[in-house]
Design brief:
mainly beta, Immunoglobulin-like, 8 strands, about 10% helix, about 40% strand, signal, DUF2690
């Protein structure tokens, strides 16, 4: 029992002194390249250093391609307030592809952009017609 108390006290001192970090319950996941495939960028560390690397080229520039250099992953994001039922398809040149449905300024899950090209296409209805806007690749 004395040994257990010594270990617990020692561990407490290390934690208090900042030498041992306690795991955070809300810590975001880190991924790299293909381990990011299908993950939500908002629940990872990837969103922290993300930047827009390409924009849509349609009559309405609705899409952005977001890229995280630390994760080497990409995802699509609607710049417009997309109506319910809209979708984003994110894909890469290795054939990996995901479709995310939503509304508003939503974003897709991620796809690896490590040593490959990625791009995103958004589809939404406006005034009774289908609209599509695709980004260039990055």
């Amino acid at each position: 029992m004395k040994h257990l108390a010594t270990v617990l006290l020692g561990t407490g001192a290390l934690l208090a002194g900042g030498l041992v970090a306690a795991p955070s319950a809300s810590a975001a996941t880190h991924c790299l390249g293909s381990s990011c495939n299908g993950l939500n960028p908002g629940k990872t560390t990837c969103a922290a250093d993300a930047r827009t690397v390409a924009e849509g080229a349609g009559p309405v520039t609705a899409m952005e391609l977001r890229y995280s250099p630390s994760c080497r992953a990409a995802w699509g994001r609607f710049r417009i307030n997309a109506p319910s039922g809209s979708k984003i398809v994110i894909k890469n040149s290795r054939g990996k592809q995901y479709t995310t449905y939503g509304r508003g300024h939503f974003y897709s899950v991620m796809v690896s952009d490590k040593n490959v090209k990625a791009w995103a296409c958004g589809t939404w209805k406006a005034r009774g017609s289908d609209n599509v806007d695709c980004t260039g690749s990055y």
